[in-house]
Amino acid sequence: MTHEINLLLSKHPFILYGPLHLLTLITIFLMIATVITLAKKINEPSYKKIGNGIAILSCMSFLFSAYSRYAFLSATFTQVLPLALCNILSFILIPLTLIKRNQTLFEFCYYSGIGGASQALITPAIHYRIPFICSIAFYIEHALILLGIFYCLVPYTMKPKENSVIKCWLIICGYSYLSILFNYLLNTNYCYTLHKPHGTNLITKLSPWPWYIPEASLIALLIFSCLYLPFYISRLYKKTRSSGLRF
Predict the structure, then answer these.
(1) Which end of the chain is more exposed for a tag (fewer CB within 10 A), N or C?
(2) How many CA atoms lie within 13 A of 140 on its CB side?
(3) Are 119 and 202 in contact (CB under 8 A)?
(4) Which distant-in-sequence residues (6+ apart) come within 8 Å of 125 by Cβ?
């Protein structure tokens, strides 16, 4: 089975920004836009049920992804644990955020989820393409991360607060450096802290190990700041407008 799969992958490799990749990205965008639009038009009990449904699907998507890699790519048990950042999001944090609507969890999911899942979809670190089951599982998992975040943003009207950028960035940095330790112990590469991922993506363009780790941390801070910028501008505009009305 493994030999047959490797032969199949060699004949049908993943093509970055090829027709299938672009079609997948467009499909994901339309799916998210459709769900969010429909949720805005229904009453609160109904869109809460949809939010809970997304939470369950997100959790299941990780299990589906982990099983597919274990069954079809000969991944070991330690390689399919929910220790990668996007796996933690899909399996634990996105479901909890949608169900509990906790502000701290939302902020962490917002920055790390949009920054991580969008990067994973745009420049995936995979060498297999749709319709291979592992590829389907990969896209479903990351698409549901983004859907969960935008569901919190729009129907649940949650927003990141001031100082959330630094707080979440420090947590991400701490976990990334911690991952170096358990990667050595488990012989894994979660968060790509022992070596760069496959394919063509942002990390592969950075300096050799270990220098790409602090470089990636600084890029993450920049991305987080850009993600907070619309909310900062909105709050600044409201304060300016409010001050103007007083005079």
Answers:
(1) C
(2) 22
(3) yes
(4) 192, 197, 198, 199, 201
Q: Tell me whether residue 63 is in a domain.
A: yes
**What is the pTM assigned to this prediction?**
0.92
Q: Contact, 158 vs 106, CB < 8 A?
A: yes
pLDDT tens-digit readout, 166-176: 999 999 999 99
CB 98, CB 148: distance < 8 Å = yes
Q: Are 134 and 68 in contact (CB under 8 A)?
A: yes
Residue 30 lies in a domain: yes
Q: What is each CA distance from 40 to 36, 193, 221, 233, in whole angstroms?
A: 6, 40, 31, 24
The Cα 151–Cα 51 span in angstroms is 7
Q: How many domains does one find in the chain?
A: 1
Phi (first) and psi of residue 128, to 5 degrees: -130, 150
**CA dihedral angle for residue 28, residue 105, residue 66, residue 207, rounded to 10 degrees:** 80
Task: Count Cβ atoms within 10 A of the Cβ of residue 78 and give its class: 0-12 exposed, 13-18 middle, 19 or more buried.
Answer: middle
Helix (H, G, I), strand (E, B) or coil at 13: strand
**Gap between the Cα atoms of 218 and 245, Å rounded:** 40
Hunting for tokens 């809970």 — which residue is that? 52
In a domain, 243, yes or no: no
202's CB contacts (< 8 A; 6+ apart) are 119, 123, 216, 219
Q: What is the pLDDT of residues 53-112, one digit of tens each?
A: 999 999 999 999 999 999 988 899 999 999 999 999 999 999 999 999 999 999 999 999
Which residue do the tokens 């909105």 mark?
234
Residue 185 placed within a domain: yes
Instruction: Evaluate whether 123 touches 16 at the Cβ level (below 8 Å).
Output: yes
